[in-house]
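Q: What would this chain look like folded?
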Amino acid sequence: MQIRAFEESDWPRVWPIFRDIVRAQETYTYDPDVTAEQAHEMWIEAPPGLTVVAGDGERVLGTAKMGPNRQGPGAHVSTASFMVADDAQGCGVGTALCAFALGWARDHGYAGMEFNAVTESNHSAVRIYQRLGFDMIGTVPGAFAHPALGRVGLHVMYRAF
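A: My prediction, written as C-alpha cells:
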C-alpha cells in the first residue's frame, strides 16, 4: 500500500468510497444526499491542507484529508479525517492513513491534532486513535443520529506533539 497526494484523476475512485460511507450515516455528519461536486469541495483540501489516497496499484483503498483545525489563533492545531473502502476495512488502511496524517502534521509544525466529532459507535476508529496516542477529551451526548443505534455521542479526541 502506498499513501500519496491526491490527484484529480483519483476522484472517480475516491467518490464511491465517500458516497458509500456518507450514505450509510454511521460515522460522518455529512448530508447523505451530498452530490459528487459538493463532496469534492468538502474533501479536497487546499493548502496549507492536504488530501491523500492510500492505494494498491490503481485501486484506492482509502483517503484522508488534513490541515489546520481552526483559523487564526487556533491554526497551530491540526485535524484530519479518514475514509476506508468497505472491502479494505480491517486491513490496516485506517491506521496507516492516521499515522501518515500525524507525521505530516508534526513535519508541518503543528502542536497537536484534534478530532472534533468521532462517533462513539465507531469502535474501530476509536481504538486506532487511542493506540496512536489520542486522548478522549470529552463526549457530546446524543449528538449523532445513528440509523440503527439511535442517538449516540460524538467524542472530541486530542493528541499533543
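The beta strands are 2-5, 50-56, 59-68, 77-84, 112-119, 135-146, 150-160.
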